[in-house]
Specification:
Layout: E1 2-5, E2 8-10, E3 20-25, H1 31-45, E4 49-54, H2 58-62, H3 71-80, E5 82-85, H4 99-106, E6 111-117, E7 131-137, E8 147-149, E9 155-157, H5 163-179, E10 184-189, H6 197-209, E11 216-221, H7 222-231, E12 238-241, H8 243-257, E13 264-268, E14 273-277, H9 294-306, H10 310-325, E15 328-329, E16 341-342, H11 345-354, H12 375-378, E17 389-399, H13 404-414, E18 419-426, E19 429-432, E20 444-451, H14 458-470, E21 474-484, E22 487-488
The structure holds nicotinamide-adenine-dinucleotide (NAD).
Nicotinamide-adenine-dinucleotide binds at residues 30, 87-90, 100, 260-261, 276, 279-285, 291-292, 295, 332.
Length: 496
Amino acid sequence: METATSNDYILNSTLEIKPTPITVAYGDGIGPDLMRATLRILDAAGARIAVNEIEIGEKVYLKGFSSGIAPEAWESLRKTKVFLKSPITTPQGGGFKSLNVTIRKTLGLFANVRPCITYYPYVHSNHPEMDVVIIRENEEDLYAGIEHRQTDEVYQCLKLVSRPGCERIVRYAFEYARAYKRKKVTCMTKDNIMKFTDGLFHKVFDEIGAEYPEIEKEHWIIDIGMAKAATRPEVFDVIVTPNLYGDILSDVTAEIAGSVGLAPSANIGEHCAMFEAIHGSAPDIAGKDIANPSSLILAAVMMLVHIGQSEIAMKIHNAWLKTIEDGVHTADIFTLDQSTSKVGTQFFADAVIQRLGLIPTRLKPIHYGTPPDLTAALARPVRRSFEKKELVGMDVFVHWNGNTEQLADKLQASSVPGLKLVMITNRGVKVWPQGLSETFCTDHWRCRFMGDSAPVPHSTLISLLQNLSTAEIDFIKTENLCTFNGVPGYSLGQGQ
Ligand code: NAD
């Protein structure tokens, strides 16, 4: 390694190829050990990279940066556009935001790509044929981070899903499948319940999927889909799914493949990309030199393909496979029948380095040709023309400790000409008119007012809120009810 400053150095500076600048963070817990092991392998394999090191994680949080990253680190990320990141520790307690979520959203890393493959029989798994890639939407859904406490008893988290967001991730999944010659893309949502948000994701999947006739397509409801992935993962190929489901699903599939310590992930955006292990900083084994560095090594392999150093990626990946099939295993994947030695983090890295140039004889060797062109997958979705939007009513959410009839009477007495109270629900269940006495009610009520005719002027809604305020009704939030080209843009029912 040639050192320019303590934070900058070039791997393989004697080679004539221009080095690709990358940003590196050593992270917390087992992070520094994994990164040292990984960079030693990259160096030995001849990766040509110019490293700019930044500090992120626990120490930065405790310095007072609520997202765990200092302003100057963003400069490095914006300059290099490629980030190799070790896991970090998020300090306990309130006030700390997830660094990963912040980086993904700030840099627009919309696609989270997580390959989960078994290395049977060398790594124990009940699923010898498993080879699935989870493509998780990375920016939206419940991860918008918009949460509120609204009443004594009720808290909410907003699930935001956009059409451009769905289009981008679904197209990425199909382009990925095409580029890597995968046969099937499975979409998983819960659109039988969340008909607008997950319904949009499924609809966009059907629309965009039609442009890829050579690829088989299917949709599973996430609960049974995830159960199937946990028991018969070999029936899946590429899975595309919204953020939260993808987060859980990819940990499940990584674990049943053998260990979370084997699973890498790439976070891809239009301008930047971040490569990391899927697991955390494992404080329980930090400093013991026993963590499996494979997830970060394989993340670095994905990074090398991304920056066009496929030859080096292939060399490292095949050496890693050879190490695994030779039975040189860290504690998390060690078994008496398949392992030949139980090794620590750095010894494992040495074993990979010793095998650079070799290919596995029993596991399938890897071949990375010309990097696949995923430009179409990264293009910005085309904005659609606006639909005719009409305001037809308003849901008023109210903090109320009395009973349903008293609330309905008070609301009706406060109404304004042109608006009528039509329904009250509690946690999504209709309680007025004609509710059931068996329904348990909290202190959080949704009160639906509909206009006599459309469109309802905003001023009418403001008058209603003015009256509610005068009647000392504690409204905590309102939601406008609109139609789009005549189609209601709000759920009609009373929850399922
Ligand atoms: P974790 O993934 O760190 O650990 C879960 C279990 O898996 C532990 O028993 C651990 O020992 C084991 N494990 C993880 N990686 C391993 C490896 N490479 N080799 C062998 N065993 C391994 O999850 P956690 O304990 O819930 O979280 C610890 C910290 O990590 C928390 O502060 C959390 O916020 C953070 N975290 C960070 C990231 C990230 O930086 N991307 C992701 C998840 C969690």
